[in-house]
Amino acid sequence: MLVVPEVKVKLFIKYMVSLRCKLMVMQELKKLGIRYVVVDLGVAEIFEDITSEQRELLKVNLQKSGLELLDDKRSIIIERIQNVVVEMIHYAEELPKSNYSAHISEKMGYDYTYLSNMFAEVKGITLQNYIIMHKVEMAKELILYNELNLTEISQLLQYSSVAHLSNQFKKLTGLTPSFYKQLKKKRIVNLENL
After folding, report:
1. The pLDDT of residue 175
2. pTM for the complete prediction?
């Protein structure tokens, strides 16, 4: 008897940014009887193609939770780029040793210039600035955790120096990292005095 391997199909989903989103997608797939291999940020890999009726039901159910099933190639690529950046900055144990462009290109399987041009055209912001925005958001989180000093944060986020981190931080937030940290302390004191 000839055994035919099962086909794996990828569904791309916009706005998947957390474990809660992944669990919600798994639940929706189960409800529709769609067997999945893996559900990760922005993608669900399923065993076989789904019917147009299942696709429409999944699309409607995901929209109720603020997620969007993607259909067009450009939207899928942009969402995948965003997921690679979020995963790289916020969830990886450490940032890639290679430069970000090489990492993104490798993960996506496309030339970085092609990806970068498409990203800028669709999102209205360069991919480099998108990465910087996420690095600054991560720096803000780390500052608020108060477990690392600015030198350690700049090293963790692969800045060449604290001054480089501070310049980008101020450019995006209008505040220095030190002032941002002081705001947190003042807020805690104010809350304690209520």
Report:
1. 92
2. 0.71
